[in-house]
Design brief:
The chain folds into 2 domains: 292 residues, 3-Layer(aba) Sandwich (Rossmann fold); 223 residues, NAD(P)-binding Rossmann-like Domain (Rossmann fold). The chain is 48% helix and 16% strand. It has 20 helices and 17 strands. The protein is elongated.
Length: 572
Amino acid sequence: MTIRRRTVDSGGVPLAVYEQGDPADPTVVLVHGYPDTHTVWDDIAADLAGDHHVVRYDVRGAGRSGAPAGRDGYRLPLLGADLIAVADAVSPDAPVHVVAHDWGSIQSWEAVTEPGAHHRIASYTSLSGPSLDHIGHWIRHRTRRPTPRHLRQLAVQGVHSWYITAFHLPYLAPAVWRLLLARAWPLVLRRLEDVPPRPGHPQPTLARDAVRGIDLYRANFRPVLRRPRERRTEVPVQLVTLRRDRYVSPFLSEGLEQWVPNLTRRTLDAGHWSALLEKGATVAHLVREHVARVAAGRTQGPPERGRLVVVTGGGSGIGRATALAFAAQGDRVVVCDLDLAAAERAAAACAEAAPGAAAYRVDVSDGAAVDAFARQVADTHGVPDVVVNNAGIGHAGSFLQTTEKEWQRVLDVNLWGVIHGCRAFGALMVERGEGGHIVNLASAAAYLPATSLAAYATSKAGVLMLSDCLRAELVPHRIGVSAVCPGIVDTGITRTTTFSGLDPEAQAARQARAAKAYARRGFPPEKVAAEIVRAVRTRRAFVPVTVEAKAAHLLGRISPRLLRRLARVDVG
């Protein structure tokens, strides 16, 4: 896409401005931080330009923009005026949506909190750059009420802000940037942020930009901390907190609602620079969502009530009970099942408690179908916060009785269905970068061997080990994984369980006997659903449900030999 360049004058300082997309679309202005230039937004700008008029500019002293004559030229009021000058030039007839990072965010707060700012700024998304006045009040509150928690917060943020003190040392900081840090910056990004170098990043003017930008710190910190101003705004603000930010602690935004009544909080599992350079698609999604929300007149809060929960096999049994349990908490639920009518009935019941429920027909044994389902959910409803891989089938028969076709069917649904769900939705959760939780339905049969359950027990043991492996892999992404292992539960699975080596008449008789036995046990699926909801809340890794499931697990730890002896008993 063509990038158009123009120059905007702001108080005698020429600002290099770059535009992409159709000017008739909503205008989004991206403001970079220190020591970057507009190029740090490349990925996000390219993503947003498909349906937005995207504007970036090199802030004063950086890139191809001019630099003020002295340190006072970097004061916050002038930086805020730069943003308004650019907005007036690129969108004179409509307010703009501002997205800013680091020092770009700090100076954008200056413009956003000016009286009447909502007439020129339609919305604001802030990453890793608080208002210095808000921070001034935050510090004053904690020094006047020196509780252990407040003192700890001050100490932690003081350690994180070591560089501010260093930038106030005469001669040292400029010399370090010129002689060492500019050359080593790609290594710093790789080691601390896991951001590999690529053409154009960092920019060729880094050393000069970094040295000039030191005056941002020297011109603005001490006056604000001495006497912070009352800075409120009517602009709808989206605050994106970065979990792995080494410089801006999450607790710095505590109490921000005092100054920003229309505040939406989002969290991204990313570092200070990796949020822009490695998670660009996720940031673009958050921006697009916030702009659309404001355009629709919703100026506060998440786009919908509650989390988004996907339940496979949600048309009946444990799946249906689980969908209803999440809906009862106010969560939006997406139900899929091979039986579309059953899925629609479950979704309708969920919608009575939490609007927005939806139903789909999906064969979880079909990997391509699950991938398409995951994409459809993401496009229509968003990336889910919780995925419950519940779909499964029952089968009984000894190893030698079970045919290859029966093995294939059981593994395709019970194991591969879980694999497909974990892969399709897990990838979306990782890309989004906001964490989440995956629940995989295994069974007590996963660790309780039985001669009559060779294929079924094997499939569920695979689910249990898959969950352990996946949990370890997804820890860095803050995505939890729980394996839930019910025992004998009164569900409809007994009426559809197949038995090896039996004709249809004998099959029906065995199914009836099994359903009667499970009904006599009297353990309802709602109790399993309650354990699933609790596992998500507590992020519990392994959840045996029912007395027999817990007893079998305990016996396996105390005396595996005795457990293997019990496997010889024919319970069929």
